[in-house]
Design brief:
The protein is an alpha/beta fold. It has nine helices and seven strands. It has helices at residues 13-22, 30-38, 45-52, 64-71, 75-100, 133-144, 148-156, 161-167, 178-192, and strands spanning 2-7, 26-29, 57-58, 61-62, 107-110, 125-130, 170-173. It has a five-stranded parallel beta sheet with strand order 2-5-1-6-7, sandwiched between helices. A hairpin with a 2-residue loop joins strand 3 (57-58) and strand 4. Helix 3 (45-52) runs antiparallel to helix 5 (75-100) and helix 6 (133-144) packs across helix 7 (148-156). The longest helix has 26 residues, at 75-100. The chain is globular.
């Protein structure tokens, strides 16, 4: 069974994904795919340089912070980056899901922009990871060293979390102790995929 795991930035999706991986489920990680495509020698670098120029590169390496400051402040630039990356990411996700989709297993698609990229149809169930916006802002500022305004720009760059929650088959609230999150995940696995 294919489960789509999504949420918004700094909602705890990576924590949930890591727990699912520790339980033995295969994770198809859209962020890891994106990082491979944009790492030195990555397949997306040529198109990114062509679109954004040398200012977002340090030599041959992509300067992610410089690129982020552009795309999170200018929606048209974000759309240009998405036009480069999303088809490549989607093709990789589809391939990996197909390779690991077995009747007696759960395969988890960890996809931050699942709804934004119209990928819900690829999964049998969607689980959304959620926290209040103030907690998101605090986590982003602490984790990434960004200002409150920069954090808010990153949150606003994604579909509102309330819309994602409304579309989901299940919501995982990560605004409490880690054990609470794990209990929610355990219960979801049991109800979704009883053994």
């Amino acid at each position: 069974m294919k489960i789509g795991l999504t949420g918004s930035i700094a909602c705890g999706k990576s924590t949930v994904s890591a727990y699912l991986r520790a339980l033995g489920h295969h994770i198809v990680d859209a962020d890891a795919i994106s990082h491979r495509l944009t790492a030195p020698g990555g397949a997306a670098l040529g198109a990114i340089r062509e679109t954004f120029g040398d200012s977002v590169f340090d030599g041959d390496a992509l300067n992610r912070r410089a690129l982020g400051s552009i795309v999170f402040a200018q929606p048209e630039k974000r759309a240009a980056l998405n036009a480069v990356l999303h088809p490549m990411i989607l093709a990789s996700i589809e391939k990996e899901l197909a390779e690991h989709d077995e009747p007696d297993a759960l395969v988890i698609g960890d996809v931050p922009l699942l709804y934004e990229c119209d990928m819900a149809h690829m999964f049998e169930r969607i689980w959304v990871v959620s926290v209040p916006e103030e907690e998101q802002i605090a986590r982003i500022c602490m984790r990434d060293g960004l200002s409150r305004e920069e954090a808010q720009n990153r949150i606003r760059a994604q579909m509102p979390l309330s819309e994602k929650r409304a579309l989901a088959d299940a919501v995982i609230d990560t605004n409490g102790p880690l054990e609470n999150t794990r209990r929610q995940v355990d219960a979801l696995i049991q109800s979704t995929f009883p053994r």
